[in-house]
Write a structure and sequence with these properties.
Blueprint lengths: L18 E4 L2 E4 L2 E2 H7 L2 H10 L5 H15 L7 H8 L4 H14 L9 H26 L13 H10 L5 H13 L7 H10 L5 H12 L7 H12 L5 H10 L19 H14 L3 H18 L5 H11 L7 H22 L25
Bound molecules: acetyl coenzyme *A and oxaloacetate ion.
Length: 372
């Protein structure tokens, strides 16, 4: 029996050309995350992850136009989407079900060639922000908003969500957040997606499986939990009491710690800067101050540092985004990475099927029911 590793820690499951983590340096296809976050548009990053190179002008225009085309999903006219939205508190479940639902109507869902998969990837990537925005509007009894061709991905997402043109600062913040969350090597949801399509299942199934994995509070679901924690604490003077109690009870502080980064998550500093700026602009800098204090105590007591989810909570909150949409927004971005990984998996596929060490009963004999 091969060696076992709790939680598959440190296990290398195969080769990938998509993203790399070395120490605290994160790169997408060889480009440092800082370079991309400072300079790129999210659509360029999507193209990069899917094609292993940045697009030229024509390719970018083409991708944008295709994304726009499929962003206009018809949630307004769908009784199914309305029913998903009526179940008000279950945004990630609605997203998961909506992507599955959209997949039913793609006649080419099971076509497996490279071109068919690229087309499906565009459809799925485009549907994600539309479904999240439509869910928010429909659950509030509002009409859904069609995207505009002249807007980019980040701007359209905010426009479809709020029904009004977002400010440049909001678009910049959303674009950066989308880039920073786009891919992260073999994180739990990406691994889930790869396991799913390694059976030669389709991209919709892989995306649905990945959404399910991202939803958990130890992964993408942590950003919503961070906001719940900040709301529960309420003010800077209550931080110490709250955090020490949690640590004494061996409870986790959400948004802190990471399986791979032990010296800090390189994405966190961007989100921290954004959180500082946006909470100040919003007159809610106490959220930022509370976050800093929480992070200081956990670092001092446990040597653990904030991950990508920690400051993204205050960033999204400051942008007026409802708290249960924080994890769906993560999914909108991470879909680009999931799709890149699933297409990479198809290119060099082998079924993913590890082993477990059996520690159960042995040698039992069937007992007739009346003797049990
Ligand atoms: C996008 C993302 O997915 S980023 C991660 C988002 N998740 C969170 O923020 C949830 C909070 N953090 C955690 O639960 C963890 O740090 C994880 C799951 C992210 C990674 O941790 P792992 O490598 O699996 O470490 P594990 O959970 O085994 O913890 C190791 C030790 O650190 C402690 N620890 C880890 N994270 C935390 C935390 N956030 N707060 C308090 N203690 C923590 C554990 O209690 C454990 O302590 P012990 O050895 O005394 O029992
Ligand atoms: O890599 C991980 O384990 C979790 C993470 O930070 C991410 O998915 O962005």
């Amino acid at each position: 029996m091969p060696e076992k590793s709790s939680g598959l820690e440190g296990v290398v499951i195969g080769e990938s050309r998509i993203s790399s983590i070395i120490g605290t340096k994160l790169t997408y296809c060889g480009y440092e995350i800082d370079d991309l976050a400072e300079n790129a548009e999210f659509e360029e990053v999507i193209f990069l992850l899917w094609n292993d190179r940045l697009p030229n002008e024509e390719e970018l225009a083409d991708l944008k136009s295709n994304l726009f085309k499929y962003m206009s999903v018809t949630s307004n006219n769908s009784e199914q989407f309305k029913a998903f939205a009526e179940n008000k508190g279950r945004a990630m479940a609605a997203l998961r079900t909506s992507i599955s639902y959209i997949g039913i109507f793609d006649e080419k869902a099971d076509d497996m060639n490279e071109e068919a998969n690229m087309n499906k990837a565009i459809r799925i990537q485009a549907a994600m922000p539309a479904v999240v925005a439509d869910f928010e509007r429909l659950r509030n009894g509002l009409e859904t908003i069609a995207p505009k061709e002249e807007f980019g991905f980040a701007k359209n997402f905010l426009y479809m969500l709020f029904g009004e043109e977002p400010t440049d600062t909001q678009v910049e913040a959303m674009n950066k957040a989308l880039i920073l969350h786009a891919d992260h090597e073999i994180n739990a949801s990406t691994f889930t997606a790869r396991v799913c399509v390694a059976t030669l299942s389709d991209l919709y199934s892989g995306t649905v499986a990945a959404i399910g994995a991202l939803k958990g509070p130890l992964h993408g679901g942590a950003n919503e939990q961070v906001m719940n924690m900040l709301t529960e604490i309420g003010s800077v003077d209550k931080v110490e009491d709250y955090v020490y109690k949690k640590l004494e009870n061996k409870e986790k502080i959400m948004g802190i710690g990471h399986r791979v980064y032990k010296d800090g998550d390189p994405r966190a500093k961007y989100l921290e800067d954004m959180a500082k700026r946006l909470t100040e602009e919003n007159g809610e800098s106490e959220l930022y101050d509370m976050s800093i204090k929480i992070a200081e105590i956990v670092e001092k007591e446990k040597g653990l540092l904030p991950n990508v989810d920690f400051f993204s909570a205050s960033v999204y909150h400051s942008m007026g985004i409802p708290h249960d949409l924080f994890t769906p927004i993560f999914a909108v971005s991470r879909a680009s990475g999931w799709l890149a990984h699933m297409m990479e998996q198809y290119r060099n596929n082998r079924l993913i099927r590890p082993r477990a060490e059996y520690v159960g009963h042995v040698g039992r004999k069937y007992e007739p029911i009346e003797e049990r």
